[in-house]
Every structure is written in structure tokens, then in C-alpha cells.
TrEMBL record:
Name the record gives this protein: Small GTP-binding domain containing protein
GTP-binding recorded as keyword: yes
Organism: Trema orientale
Transmembrane segments: none
Matching SUPFAM superfamilies: P-loop containing nucleoside triphosphate hydrolases
Membrane topology: Lipid-anchor
Location(s), subcellular: Endomembrane system
Taxonomic lineage of the native organism: Eukaryota, Viridiplantae, Streptophyta, Embryophyta, Tracheophyta
InterPro entries the record matches: P-loop_NTPase, Small_GTP-bd, Small_GTPase
């Protein structure tokens, strides 16, 4: 039985992590961009982070490279401090190739599992079917390009 290793690198969106990111980005199968729904600048910076990733990673097909966007910290202050609406965030994902968008709370664990299930399926789409069929039955559907309706993933 073969195993697949998912490596998740969190650069925390900080400038000091940009220089070593080239080594981490190369060979990536998916990129997750996260913004704080309570901080407009974090949302406004998403496109810059996307472009920087594409420059650093040099994927073979940058126009079709898969991204997922997470709007995090939806648990804060009962939503009263929220400045980026779900509608605005989803609209920002649509012009860039229908990027899957999830609203999450890392603190409360809300929608984190569904988001990472989608991320894993996107990453596995590039794996040969014979390598993934023995250890992840749902991955066959994902690799075949079928939509997994229960996760909310637009894969």
C-alpha cells in the first residue's frame, strides 16, 4: 500500500517569509490563500500573494494553477467586526477562475475539515489514479474530475 504525504507550508503572510518561499512553492499542487474577514487589507492583498506565488512557483500552466481561498476568523466578536462579506469574497474568487472559497474559524474548527478536504482533492487530481486508488477511495472521484457535493468543494 502506498502513502501520500501532504505537505502544508504556512508562510503566515509575512514579508520575512517570502525569500525562502521559492523552495517551498516549487512543485506545489495547490495554493491556499487566507484572509482575515475582519481586516480589509488582508483581503486586498490576496491578489498580490497569488501573483507572487505564481512568480516564485513557476507552474507549467499558471493560468490554470489551482488556488483555494479561506476567509478566516468568522468567530470573532459574533461577526460584528467583520469588514469582508462572504458575497464580496466570493465575487473576488470568481474572476480568477472560480476559485473555491470557504469561510472558516481555525479557533473553533468551523469548516476547516471541508476546506482541507477540498484542498487535498485538488492536490490529488494531478496524481496518477493507480497511485491514489489504494488508499483514498474518494480521491478517484476527485482525480476523475467529478465534483464532491458534500464538501462544498468546487473542484
Amino acid at each position: 500500500m502506498s502513502n501520500t504525504l501532504l505537505q502544508i507550508w504556512d508562510t503566515a503572510g509575512q514579508e520575512r517569509f517570502q525569500s525562502p518561499s521559492v523552495a517551498f512553492y516549487r512543485g506545489a499542487d495547490c495554493c491556499v490563500l487566507v484572509h482575515d474577514v475582519n481586516v480589509m487589507k488582508s483581503f486586498d492583498d490576496l491578489n498580490n500573494w497569488r501573483e507572487e506565488f505564481l512568480i516564485q512557483a513557476c507552474p507549467p500552466d499558471p493560468e490554470n494553477f489551482p488556488f483555494v481561498v479561506l476567509g478566516n476568523k468568522i468567530d470573532i466578536d459574533g461577526g460584528n467586526s467583520r469588514v469582508v462579506s462572504e458575497k464580496k469574497a466570493k465575487a473576488g474568487c470568481t474572476p480568477k477562475g472560480n476559485i473555491p472559497y470557504f469561510e472558516t474559524s481555525a479557533k473553533e474548527g468551523f469548516n476547516v475539515e471541508g476546506a482541507f478536504e477540498c484542498i487535498a482533492k485538488i492536490a490529488l487530481k494531478n496524481e496518477p489514479l493507480e497511485e491514489i486508488s489504494s488508499y483514498l477511495p474518494d480521491a478517484i472521484d476527485a482525480a476523475a474530475g467529478q465534483q464532491h457535493k458534500s464538501s462544498g468543494c468546487e473542484c
